[in-house]
TrEMBL record:
Keyword terms of this UniProt record: Apoplast, Copper, Glycoprotein, Lignin degradation, Metal-binding, Oxidoreductase, Repeat, Secreted, Signal
Protein name: Laccase
GO biological process, any: lignin catabolic process
Keyword Oxidoreductase: yes
Chain ranges of the Plastocyanin-like domain: 10-123, 145-268, 387-510
Enzyme class: oxidoreductase
Compartments, as annotated in UniProt: Secreted, Extracellular space, Apoplast
Cofactor: Cu cation
Length: 528
């Protein structure tokens, strides 16, 4: 591989959308941010300089960071943030991955405007395991409630919102060609359906992993995930344009559908004019279409070919069971804002622990032997309080706050059941694991049954990925091999749930051999 250098200057930039101009935090003044392109095996050296008033940190979402955890990016987990006027060089090599990933800010809510594609091409002379596309196009969803008035495609809200028709993403295509769309869900809080009117999509990869190709009119994508699809254009100019739309999938009541975001697929044709030709619209499933969601996820299978095998851990060293919960805690009205029902506040937890970010980085504390007072190595392998997860809402005020990590010896083979407890809300929780890909060996609704469910696990061609939707009122089973020493964050990729504490960290110890140890930190590693 070669070394590729990038410079990210974090600065404020005025951006106008929906007829309002806002000053936002950007990379190099661009929104969405710049595209990073590398080949498998390349080294990326990205210098990030902070020219804004707030602290900054950038995460390379889905990059395995083998032994280079210092470059992973989550603030207070692998590094202290980059302070105003400071720089930090993220230096890592892309090993054994090819496809679409992305990068984003990883401190407070800054990822709402700090994000962009990270594209990994296969090695030279290694073809795709599918038809060579004529062109490749990133399609990145952003925005959403709490931070903006609209969802966006490639930063543009599209024609369905007032005052934004001219801010529409247009994909201009030629007839009879195959396009590779690299779809990324960078939205803050919503799983999205996506479709292009009158066109079928062939899913070929997710999270930089090839899958067994399958055709679908609609895809479902959670925040944090990527999906590569092939789009075959019609053989001749169709005399029409086609809307592409995305909108949320949520099963809870009281959720909004603040309409869809749309872009336009337009065939290049000399006399084409949007006003003269019809515009076809796709049909998306209802907001709460769980059966579509379930069927779609079931179709995702690793390619599992001799060239791209699915190395599913067959034996398990450690079996873990985590509850993923939203609940409420008592709120002290004098010192806190209490947004929960009946004067409570929201809290979110994994195994009844709502994760508290430390004031220094966990990885530093670990590496320099200064964990005392920073974290406890006693994250529970089972919930503190067992209950029937899908019965009536239990008394969920037994959440405690803490900075606990789960320690794994090098090369531990882990099976983890993630059980949603569905106390509030009806969304899947897109659980994202840093530093690893995992295999989704099983999933279901209701309570996980340790007697029956493992009999149906797929150990042959389960999907391999870095972010999985834990279904509302259900569970998923994942397996991974802890072959990457360091401290690795795991959290829900819905930003509002992260802020309520739906996060935890793993500490994977060094192995015995020299090439099984975390590399020493770079000299410019930021200090807290
Ligand atoms: Cu894409 Cu920890 O995040």
């Amino acid at each position: 591989g070669i070394t590729r250098h990038y410079e990210f200057n974090i600065k404020m930039q005025n951006v106008t959308r929906l007829c309002h101009t806002k000053s936002m935090v950007t990379v190099n003044g661009k929104f969405p941010g710049p595209r990073i392109v590398a080949r498998e095996g390349d080294r990326l050296v990205i210098k990030v300089t902070n020219h804004v008033a707030s602290n900054i940190s950038i995460h390379w979402h889905g990059i395995r960071q083998l032994r280079s955890g210092w470059a992973d990016g989550p603030a207070y987990i692998t590094q202290c943030p980059i302070q105003t006027g400071q720089s930090y060089v993220y230096d890592f090599t892309v090993v054994g991955q090819r496809g679409t990933l992305w990068w984003h800010g990883h401190i407070s809510w800054l990822r709402s405007t700090l994000y962009g594609p990270l594209i990994i091409l296969p090695k030279h002379n290694v073809p795709y395991p599918f038809e060579k596309p004529y062109k490749e196009v990133p399609v990145i969803f952003g925005g959403g409630p709490n931070v903006s008035d609209a969802y966006t495609i490639n930063g543009l809200p599209g024609p369905l919102y007032n005052c934004s028709a001219k801010d529409t993403f247009k994909l201009k295509v030629k007839p009879g060609k195959t396009y590779l769309l690299r779809i990324i869900n960078a939205a803050l809080n919503d799983e999205l359906f996506f479709s292009i009117a009158n066109h079928t999509l062939t899913v070929v990869a997710v999270d930089a992993i090839y899958v067994k190709p399958f055709e679908t009119d609609i895809i479902l994508i959670t925040p944090g995930q990527t999906t590569n699809v092939l789009l075959k254009t019609k053989p001749n100019f169709p005399g029409a344009a086609f809307l592409m739309t995305a909108r949320p999938y949520v099963t809870g009541q009281g959720t909004f559908d603040n309409s869809s975001v749309a872009g336009i697929l337009e065939y290049k044709f000399p006399s084409f004019h949007l006003k003269k030709h019809p515009l076809f619209k796709p049909t998306l499933p209802p907001l709460n279409d769980t059966s579509f969601a379930t069927n779609f996820t079931k179709k995702l299978r690793s390619l599992a070919s001799p060239q791209f095998p699915a190395n599913v851990p067959k034996k398990v060293d450690k079996q873990l069971f985590f509850t993923v919960s939203l609940g409420t805690n008592p709120c002290d009205h004098k010192n806190q804002t209490c947004q929960g029902p009946n004067g409570t506040k929201f809290s979110a937890s994994v195994n009844n622990i709502s994760f508290a970010l430390p004031t220094t980085a966990l990885l530093q504390a670990h590496f320099f032997g200064q964990s005392n007072g920073v974290y406890n190595p006693n994250f529970p392998i089972n919930p503190f309080h067992w209950f029937n997860y899908t019965g009536n809402p239990p008394n969920n005020t037994m959440v405690s706050n803490g900075t606990k990590v789960l320690v794994l010896p090098f090369n531990t083979s882990v099976e983890l059941i993630l059980q949603d407890t569905s106390i509030l809300g009806g969304e899947s929780h897109p659980l994202h694991l840093h530093g690893f890909n995992f295999f989704v060996v099983g999933q279901g609704f209701g309570n996980y049954d340790p007697q029956k469910d493992p009999k149906n696990f797929n150990l042959v061609d389960p999907i391999e990925r870095n972010t999985v939707g834990v279904p509302s009122g259900g569970w998923v089973a994942i397996r991974f091999l802890a072959d990457n020493p360091g401290v690795w964050f795991m959290h829900c990729h819905l930003e509002v749930h992260v802020s309520w504490g739906l996060k935890m960290a793993w500490l994977v110890l060094d192995g015995k051999l020299p090439n099984q140890k975390l590399l020493p930190p770079p000299e410019d590693l930021p200090k807290c």
